Amino acid sequence: MFHIWTLLPALYLLFRFVRPLTISLVLKIIIGLLIAAVCEFHWFTRLLTGNMFSPELSRPLMILVGWLFGVAVFLAGLLLLRDALYLILRILFGQPLTHQSGLRGLLLAVAVILSSVAVWQGIRAPQVNHVRITLKGPASSV
Questions:
Q1: Cα 45–48–49 angle (5° rounding)?
Q2: DSSP letters along 9-70, please?
Q3: Which of 10, 49, 67, 73 is deepest in the core (most CB within 10 A)?
Q4: Which tens digits make up the pLDDT trace of 4-15?
Q5: pLDDT digits over 113-126, tens only?
Q6: CB atoms within 10 A of CB 119
Q7: What is the pTM of this model?
Q8: Do 111 and 75 touch, CB atoms closer than 8 A?
């Protein structure tokens, strides 16, 4: 069975980001399947290798999928915030607001940047600090 918690962002992106795009239906279906595959990557690796964190997969592939999954999660969160803001403004002012396609592009750019920084921070090697400790007392008691 699919992991429902990783499938929820994919479904939200499909209905709130991909569906309003002015592209062909076939392209929308392909994009939707790619988003679902990225969000369900852990399920696929567990199905194929028996473990979600399979070391058999190459490092560049894991970085790419981690980055794409981050983009999907950040974009779903940003779209959810946008929709909540639109709902609050509609309740306050009583008229519906139109969704701006430029805002969708901006949210995608923000999600790409956030995911890029997150993956960069996740894969970089931390700085090693050397600390010298001297123990007091006779050396034989150590």
A1: 75
A2: HHHHHIIIIITTSSS-HHHHHHHHHHHHHHHTHHHHHHHHHSSTT-TTS-HHHHHHHHHHHH
A3: 10
A4: 778 888 999 999
A5: 999 999 999 988 88
A6: 19
A7: 0.79
A8: yes
